[in-house]
Specification:
Length: 167
């Protein structure tokens, strides 16, 4: 533990962040679990540690972790020399999630194109689907540009943090 770390304040603010995520549409327990792991000193916690810290049942923690793993916001790893799983939030969790959304948008676009063809030109349905499709295609294109810029920015940030933290 860092000499400057205030564990009580970290837990309080992590809980607030988890609640904020839940207020913006995340499942509440998944939001709390994500915030707890993200704010932990090692960026990794066991199900027992999460249950204890969040005062939640193992089943609730398990469901939340499965949700986070599916979104690529957390990984499940095996603790060396143990049969226990450890849940980890990587530094690039947000990036990984956004890029998996990009893959979903590719699938949405392909499906919408089929729907567009079936809707019949000149119909209100056709117009609505064209607008939806144009938005998804626009966002997909923007995500690629954002990804490229983030990769460059992340390299700069990593160099800066390595200097600051002596890595």
């Amino acid at each position: 533990m860092s000499a400057d770390r205030d564990d009580d304040a970290v837990k309080q603010y992590a809980e607030q962040f988890g609640n904020l995520l839940a207020d913006t549409g995340w499942p509440r327990m998944a939001a709390r679990v994500f915030a707890a792991i993200l704010s932990s000193e090692e960026g990794r916690m066991t199900a027992a540690e999460l249950s204890d810290q969040l005062q939640a049942s193992p089943a609730a923690v398990s469901g939340a972790v499965n949700y986070l793993v599916q979104l690529r916001l957390a990984n499940r790893e095996r603790e060396p020399g143990s049969r226990r799983d450890v849940y980890v939030v990587q530094d690039d969790a947000w990036y990984q999630t956004m890029m998996s959304e990009d893959q979903a948008m590719v699938r949405w676009s392909a499906s919408l194109r089929k729907l567009l063809d079936a809707a019949g030109e000149g119909t209100a349905t056709h117009r609505r689907i064209r607008v939806s499709l144009a938005f998804i295609d626009f966002i997909s294109g923007e995500l690629q540009g954002l990804s490229d810029r983030w990769i460059k920015r992340k390299a700069e940030l990593d160099a800066q943090l390595n200097t600051e933290y002596g890595n």
